[in-house]
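Fig. S4 source data, part A: sequence.
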Amino acid sequence: MDNPTEPIEPSDPAESDLDENPFPEGWGKDEGYGPVPVRYRHDGWVPDRQLAFIERLAECGCVTEAAQAVGMSRASAYGLRRRDDAQAFRLAWDAAMDSAVARLADAALSRAIHGVPVPIFQRGEQVGERRHYDERLTMFLLRYRDPSRYGKWIDRADGTAHQDGPALLLGYRIGRMLRAGWRAFDAAFRGEDAPRPEVEVFDLSPEEARKAKKPKKTKKRGRA
């Protein structure tokens, strides 16, 4: 397909066998990925159009855009997906969405590592550019990719529960300090107010909470 945005013109059913598998290798009926056996209509979900939809969906991850690219509507795509005999189509749909999400994750990871260029203007003219690194995006990706080291659980970690706990918490808090410093530097560079500092929240155990709420007893002094 040279231009996937144009509606797909199916071939004449008299000149082609609709039972012939139009999907590439690995998408055949024997593997459970054949097209939905719909009744032929020149403006319907013919096998070629189903394949083009799946390919476009894997590229963009948007059902509406993929359906429009093959000259169909979003509602008709979901209608085809709901059919009892469309299990293979549903599997291909889900695989296409997984592929699109993987591409999105790769793009986000690239932005987190390499940053994005931000132009620098002086007196109305661009005099250079700098790289902006999104710390929130970086932390989200770290927590998603390596939750054992960067998960939210570490915010509530007890340093005495592990032999390396104090060192781990020290490294974590140094990282927070560095992040706060870079955010303040970035805000000052852009002429903005310094961001609010992160607040570290401690979760008390039920026993600690009871002790905190329990009033302290004061000793009464006897009269001399």
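Fig. S4 source data, part B ends here. Residues 36 and 73 are 17 Å apart (CA to CA).
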